[in-house]
Amino acid sequence: MMRRWKAAFVLAALLAAQGAAAQNLRIGLREDPDILDPTLSRTYVGRIVYMALCDKLFDINERLDVVPQLATGYVWEDPKTLRITLRDGVQFHDGERMNAEAVVYSLNRHLTMQGSFRRSEISEIEAIEIVDPLTVRIRLKNPSAAFLATLTDRAGMIVSPRAAEAAGRNFGANPVCAGPFRFVERIAQERIVTERFEQYWDRARIHFQRVTYTPIPDNNVRLANLQSNAIEFGERMEPDDVRTAQRSRNLRVVPVEELGYQGITINIANGSGANPAFRDARVRRAFDLAIDRAAINQVVYEGMYTPTRQPLPPANPYHVRDFAPPARDVARARALLREAGVTSPVAIEMTVPNNPDLRQVGEVIQAMVREAGFELRLRATEYASALQSSVRGEYQTFLTGWSGRTDPDGNTYQFMRTGAGQNEGRYSNPEADRLLDAARTELDVERRRALYADIMRIAVAEDVSRIYLWHRKNIMIHSTRLIGYLPVPDGLVRLQDMRLQ
Amino acid sequence: MLVWLARRLAQVVPTLILLSVMIFGLQQLMPGDPALILAGEERGDPQVLAQIRAELWLDRPLHVQYLHWVGNVVTGDFGFSWRIREPVARLILQKLPVTFQLASMAFLIAVLIGVPMGILSATHRDRPADWLANGIALFGISMPNFWLGIMMILLFSVQLGWLPPSGYVPLTEDFWQSVSTTIMPAFVLGSGIAGVLMRHTRAAMLTALSQDYVRTARAKGLTERVVVWKHALRNALIPVVTLGTIEFGRLLAGAVLTEQIFTIPGFGKLIVDAVFNRDYPVVQGVVLATALIFVGLSLVADLLYMAINPRLRQA
What we know:
The complex is a heterodimer of chains A (501) and B (315).
Chain A: H1 2-21, E1 24-29, H2 44-53, E2 58-60, E3 66-68, E4 71-78, E5 81-86, H3 100-112, E6 125-132, E7 135-140, H4 147-150, H5 161-167, E8 181-187, E9 191-196, E10 210-215, H6 219-227, E11 233-237, H7 239-247, E12 251-257, E13 261-266, H8 281-289, H9 293-301, E14 306-307, H10 330-340, E15 346-353, H11 356-372, E16 374-381, H12 383-392, E17 397-402, H13 409-416, H14 430-441, H15 445-462, E18 466-471, E19 473-479, E20 482-483, E21 499-500
Parallel strand pairs in A: 1-10, 1-11, 15-16, 15-17
Antiparallel strand pairs in A: 2-3, 4-5, 5-7, 6-7, 8-9, 9-10, 11-19, 12-19, 13-17, 13-18, 14-18, 20-21
Chain B: H1 2-29, H2 34-39, H3 46-55, H4 62-74, H5 88-123, H6 128-142, H7 145-159, H8 175-209, H9 212-219, H10 224-252, H11 256-261, H12 267-276, H13 280-308, H14 311-314
């Protein structure tokens, strides 16, 4: 009798497990990802799909701490030498073993493959050595505080060497990694289907049989899909959607702080397009003082976003406290213009991406700065063209943003250092350069924090090299049936522990 | 007949050459550096940019790029999408059935609504049926697709839950699912064309009904039904067929807005995404394929005239 009960119990448990395993998750994406090869891909949205396909050496948690994933730990042997130990028993989707050899192969692939977008991220690597089958040692050219963080993203994804060798440049058509789901099919602009990988090293935390990613670019339609239960998860929804979703009993809204920022790039000395008046930091400060960030946030974004004055969002551990946005001060702005000896109204042009919300922001700023003595003309431009103008210096100011990186270096160095690739305003200050270089290599957290505070004081408060306006939120909306979603500031959807009720 | 066909086909060749130059040339006029867009957030690294330009031949003279592309196209190689590295030919073949299905359904809806309404309104000129038909046609023509699309999604998917709000299922996979995903976009597209077809059918029918041969037919004592359907309609259909093929061609070129709203992965969506991402091989391939479709359709229209009107066969 006891045995029969036991058998029935086991059977029931099996059936329940099967029922649970047969769950499918459908995620609505804001865009269609580009190629799904960790070495060659470059879109943010692609990173959301990699959460299913490709595990990384390290991941970040909700506090942005680096936590082991395919690695089990790391040690800095000296400021330029990093030893990483690997998880035992990890398999790729093709059954190959993940080991030190695969790590060396993947990092070398990032470094040497033609068209690699990872090369610049890990160019500090001088050599990679196999210590034993589950340990690698990475030697860097210079000490780098940001290096570990790059291994929490695509640069840290380990691919199956056998599959990568066989597929060559077509690896992205059928990526083989060590993530919780294996690639099934992709129909461009339609869907990407992934299926549970039974040999996944952390399979106890995976509860879906299939995860399907569907690009639905129109925000209203993505919301309609959520409302009609055609998808369970919608990523990067609009602030306007929040109220509608909150009215629905079947939907839950989860706003997640982002890693990046939105702001105004100022052309200080990039080519002939620069406005001579803006060479003077006092004029830039006057422009800054004329803007009421909180009002923009209320008017355009329903108060959802976080007004700011710096590139490091509150979610970032290096966010500089006591560096709140200045209060709008029109009188002071006018005084600064007089001090600088410019005749108002100062005619200024701002390139604005041709999106409804950013155009509206442009109009609000236009009205605000007029009172301080600026005649702002808006130039709404399609994004690709705007980008080209900004690189060529054919702009005066540009309302643009940055998706953000985990490490503070990723939000500062490229944009502030003299001659750096994305310093499109050609801002230059030797003192700021010195601080940026120092912050890059400083491994002590407290000292590094102080360096970033100094950088903000010089490059932002004194020089107004850029005007930072707000940090967005990644607004996630999902079905209330879905539980276990862990919001992390990078906005990626980690599938571990998620399930449908 | 065969000579006529051969002559028509010979005309196609210079058209296509001219077209290929135009496609290539116009694209060069688009502002925005493709290397910058392709580099995404890695654009700060000059090495990355140089590499992209070298790999995609962007650093070579324009005529070299053009000849390279045309040379490949002639051998059937449309190149690779820069963005997702899939062969352009495969993308076209993947999207063509989708767009074809959507276009056919939309066209069927348009013909089923537009032509009978046009006949009805011509035969009931200046009576309530005419006014009603004209009102419906005006609604169909003037309703913006994106508005109608969103309203239909809100009604049929969100409120009633009858139809999926977006997406696409191929006919070969599941017939009913496929029809249920395409019926709303097909209706949105078809409603506009139905209005146009109705107006044209009405005008053509009114002209035909006032002709001498129709008066003769009536004088001979034929029933009104025979007069309308056999004598007037056949002649009235010629301009309608011309218009119909042009509209069908336009549908095949991709219903940009409608496909975007309903997330139908067809030609329209393919080309819009390609333009915004400066994915030149896809833009070139799709525009060329569309041009070929148009050329083919105008040939079909000519053949249809002959089927409808025997007098043209002697010409």
